Amino acid sequence: MNNREETIIVVQKQLINSQIKSPQVFLIDHENNNRGLTDTYEALQLAQSVELDLVLVSEGKDAPVAKILNYGKLQYQKKKRQGQSARPTVKEVRFRPNVGAADYNLRIEQALGWLKKGDSVKFAIRLRGREHQYRDKAGELLDRIVSDLSQVGKVQSLDKRSLIAQVIPA
Predict the structure, then answer these.
(1) Model confidence over 73-100: pLDDT tens digits?
(2) For residue range 122-153, what is the model confidence (pLDDT) as tens digits?
(3) What residues pair up with 58 in beta bridges, in sequence order?
(4) CA dihedral of residues 105, 110, 113, 119 (deg, nearest 10)
(5) Which are the contacts of 14, defined by CB distance < 8 A and separation ≥ 6?
(6) Pick from 82, 158, 92: which is nearest to 119 by CA?
(7) Gap between the Cα atoms of 125 and 76, Å rounded
(8) Rounded Cα gap, residues 148 and 117, in angstroms
(9) Which residues of 108-147 are buried (b: 16+ CB within 10 A; e: fewer)?
(10) Cβ neighbour number for residue 51 with a 10 Å cutoff
(11) pTM > 0.85
(12) Residue 3 has pLDDT above 60, yes or no
């Protein structure tokens, strides 16, 4: 026996059309009207007459809830939502303490766009070699970044010791 913890993921697939074995279902039709308790066979006939699928939405105590809809479209929308929620929401921008005005403005414009889209932005100022002598200059740059983004974002964290600022959408 190994000591690793094993996890089992159970994927619950929705039952559609003839896979539904319950004799009766609470039916919601394709126009979102509640039809109440209906025989599964009748619900299936109604779904086929409008060329859609009968999909089991949830298991009820008395009878499960079924809805008439396009199953392929439902799967597509579910997959699309998963892709959107998986994208990273923290963007990182790195500066050096002696950044030029054009580069600075470009990065601030990018950050403004990200903040308006709903992403948070992490700014990090990297010091190398003799640049450590100008730590105060790097702190001033961090303050300048925060003040430039104050109209569209608010500061979540500002750490002058490690020269990192995190700005979230306001």
Answers:
(1) 888 888 888 777 666 688 899 999 888 9
(2) 999 999 999 888 889 898 999 999 899 888 88
(3) 65
(4) -130
(5) 55, 56, 57, 71
(6) 92
(7) 42
(8) 17
(9) beebbebbeeebbbbbebeeeeeeeeeeeebbebbeebbe
(10) 8
(11) no
(12) no
Render 80-114 in DSSP notation, one character per residue. HHHHHHHS--EEEEEE-TT--HHHHHHHHHHHHHH
Residue located via tokens 């925060």: 146
The CA distance from 112 to 25, in Å, is 51
User: Which of 58, 69, 22, 24 is CA-nearest to residue 42?
Assistant: 24
Under 8 Å between Cβ of 148 and 139: no
Using CB atoms within 10 A of its CB, is residue 50 exposed (0-12), middle (13-18) or buried (19+)?
exposed
Q: What is the 3-state secondary structure (H, E, C) of 51-64?
A: CCEEEEEECCCCCC
Cβ density class 148-157: b for 16+ within 10 Å, e for less: bbeeebeeee
Token pair listed for 118: 């709903």
